[in-house]
Amino acid sequence: MERQYEYFAIVTERWPRVEDPRHVCRRWVDDSGQTHDEEFTTDLVWAPTTALSQAESGTGGVHRIDAAAATRFEHTRRERMSLLAPLDGRYSYFAWLNYRTDVDDPDGVRRTWKGPRGFELEEGYVAGSGWERSHLLDDLWRGRKDGELVPIDSEAVERIIQRWEQRRAERSPEAP
Length: 176
Known about the structure:
- The chain is α+β, with helices and mostly antiparallel strands.
- Helix content is 29%, strand content 34%.
- It contains four helices and twelve strands, in the order ββββββαβαββββαβα.
- The strands form three sheets. The chain has a five-stranded antiparallel β-sheet with strand order 6-5-4-1-7.
């Protein structure tokens, strides 16, 4: 049996337009009757998420959209990400230590790279949302934030992200 998806645009104060939402999610029900929510991420894949249930509980506006609108969102996100992708495909990763002192459980994780136009770009990882634009390096340089950035490798980043997502899932009302 072919999966049937329902698609949803999640709008926020910063992304208020249904035609250009912050998130696009899809919901489907498996053969056992369990509901699954997925989001089209900045990694350009559909991945499990709690963003839809959180938005439905009041943290964002949820609007049902059709499959064509979801496909347009995928295309737009792919275009945007190609404009931001590292020229050499490589990122530099950092653990941000401010209140915490453990590199394996930092206050934040950042990745930097030189974009196609030669500018240094930066993203921070947000549990439940993925990689999002960040300005921490500028904030540190200008004295608006404290802490230090410690270089880490991609394996350390994956371990940290996995731990954060697990904690988030355990706190989620959807957790079994």
